Amino acid sequence: MSAVTITPPMDLAPRVHSLDPDAFSVPTARDEEWRFSPVDRLKHFFIADPAAGFVTATGAGINLVPMAEVASSWIPIDLPSAIARAHVSKAGVLEIPAQAQWTEPVIVDLTTTAANSYQHLEIVAGHFSVATVVVRQTLTGNVSGAIIINVGDGAQLRVITVVEGEFSTALALQMPIIVGRDATFTGALATLGGGAVRVQSSVKYSAPGGRAELFGVFLADADQHVENRIFVNHDQPHCVSEVLFKGALLNPGARSAWIGDVLVRKDAIGTETHQANRNLLLSEGSRADSVPNLELETGDIVRAGHASATGRFDDEQLFYLQSRGLSLDEARQLVVRGFFADVLGRIGDTQWRDELLLKISDRLGITPMEEIDE
Amino acid sequence: MSALVITDLHAQVQTDTGPKDILRGVTLTIDSGLTHAIMGPNGSGKSTLAYVIAGHPRYTVTSGSITLDGVDVLAMSVDERARAGLFLAMQYPVEVPGVSVANFLRTAVTAARGEAPKLRLWIKEMKEAMADLQMDSSFAERNLNEGFSGGEKKRLEILQLGLLRPKIAILDETDSGLDVDALRVVSEGVNRFREATGAGTLLITHYTRILRYITPDVVHVFSDGRIVETGGPELADILEADGYERFTTVKTA
Ligand SMILES: Nc1ncnc2c1ncn2[C@@H]1O[C@H](COP(=O)(O)OP(=O)(O)OP(=O)(O)O)[C@@H](O)[C@H]1O
Ligand SMILES: [Mg+2]
């Protein structure tokens, strides 16, 4: 089996990289990386299921290829992704040719019929290509695996991932992103469904001048656990990372966790990094954990910052809106929509900004009025 | 014809150190068509009176009553009061991030009128209302009060007054933070509203300069949580010349 790489224990980087599931111990709530996770609800990802299916990727330009033919350079960093990688039979591959200028978003549907399914999707943006990809991860069963994103030199890739599905399901997803020289990646991850959803997004730069933007929105209802783990590894000079996740916890029993780790290596001079997480608790008895970490090995940077805040409704805002005749429900809905407006606006795709706002409104039980666009 | 009747109103604010009495027996009737000015020193409880009428949750009424056309206002929720025809232009309007002025106004107008205005007519109405207050139409796309200057916030309050057309309007220091030109524009907005609707108005202010544009029928002096003197417009000039001292020292003397 492949070699196991162990990185120094002091830094924020994952400790173990391996294709061999046996290289990983079974996660428990005592492990640092799993201490916010509902390991009980994820435990079917810790042993291989011989009856598992694979997630089918469909959409224009997607090739379904036997896993053996996929030349992936990514090495799993946890047990669920290692098991999925070892057992997934087919992978979805979307290649955006070099220089291509795709004006319309490409939709990729990820679906499965099995109770447990393994997933492997690779999105490869060729040099200087420009594209928007919308990944619809619809959960009808448990899914573990990866979406691997490779942004070629000078490319501009936007990937909007929408997780929806039944509250009885679980998702353990690794989303490694490799950003090439002077390339720009914009990621938007909207977690609107699924019962226990744990997504780890990891950014790595392969050359100087890359820019990675990770935006996220999530809604957590009773019995939903939404966990976003971000790891940005600045090991190249003059790269930018911008992370903003916003979540609303709707009902008692809703849980979320956001762990944002940014590591700026010694050679990563001229780095610009900012990460923030903001959560809105809409009821008592819900809980949002938010842990930003920043590790700087060089002081020779442009800017580094992080922020995290979890709050309740601002009573003054609700009073103001109610004093104009809006019911408490209308006022709350307006405030929640407003809460998400800025991060959705930053995705840079107005069609999908509106689409996501609609989905969020839908979950909140809002009937939107006709938009006023002049 | 409408009447807002406030009788022997006592109210407290909830503070971190417990409740604190602020209103100590306010009695005041505002009839349609009449404009009352309330003047009084800082901290005397003018904004508290305005908030209590609007139903701010931080204040508790301990005794007394407020009725609008005979209906108990204190039994209504904040939004019910608004829909019943009460409007408070706030001293410090609240910023609401991510909510556009256009979207907010349309939602508020829909609540006030009981049905959504037709989109085309609404856009025209909103634009005209903005032009009347010399607000650039780009304000419609901005987030509610976010990053607005003090004067811009006050203009937006009066814009809402004109669109929501309440029966009784309470204007809490709408004049503060306005330069001379803005004061004129905003006052004209208030006057247009008064003429168009014949509503009753309660104008809270420290200065007589707004009273040159908006002539009050009645002037009250407010001190230590109650009205201590009531007179005609000339009372405002006396206050401007002599200050509040002769009304506020009575109690401590
Ligand atoms: N939330 C609060 N906590 C503590 N004290 C409060 C609170 N709200 C009001 N007060 C106090 O109540 C008193 C009356 O305040 P209010 O704002 O009504 O005065 P005002 O007459 O409007 O003053 P100004 O002319 O400065 O606007 C003041 O002493 C003020 O400090
Ligand atoms: Mg005041």
Give the name of the CATH architecture of the domain at 1-93 and 167-245 in chain B.
Answer: 3-Layer(aba) Sandwich
The overall pLDDT of chain A, averaged over residues, is: 92
Q: Could you give the order of the helices and strands of chain B?
A: EEEHEEHEEHHEHEHEEEHH
CATH superfamily label of the domain at 1-93 and 167-245 in chain B: P-loop containing nucleotide triphosphate hydrolases
Q: Cα distance, first to last residue of chain B?
A: 42 Å
Distance between the termini of chain A: 61 Å
Task: Write down the oligomeric state.
Answer: heterodimer
How many strands, what sense, and barrel or not for the largest sheet of chain B?
6 strands, mixed
Enumerate the distinct ligands: adenosine-5'-triphosphate, magnesium ion
Domain SUF system FeS cluster assembly SufBD core (chain A): 114-339
Pfam family, one (chain A): SUFBD_core
InterPro entries (chain A): Fe-S_cluster_assembly_SufBD, SUF_FeS_clus_asmbl_SufBD_core, SUF_FeS_clus_asmbl_SufBD_sf
Domain ABC transporter (chain B): 4-249
Task: Kindly describe this structure.
The complex is a heterodimer of chains A (374) and B (253). Chain A is mainly β. Chain A is 14% helix and 44% strand. Chain A has five helices and 21 strands. In chain A, the strands form three sheets. In chain A, strands 3, 5, 6, 8, 10, 12, 14, 16, 18 and 20 form a ten-stranded mixed beta sheet that branches. In chain A, strands 4-7-9-11-13-15-17-19-21 form a nine-stranded mixed beta sheet, with helices on one face. Mean pLDDT of chain A is 92; it is low at 5-10 and 370-374. In chain B, helix 5 (150-164) packs parallel to helix 6 (180-197). Chain B has a domain at 1-93 and 167-245: Rossmann fold (3-Layer(aba) Sandwich), CATH 3.40.50.300. Adenosine-5'-triphosphate binds next to strand 1, strand 2 and helix 1 of chain B. Magnesium ion binds at residues 46-47, 91, 172-173 of chain B.
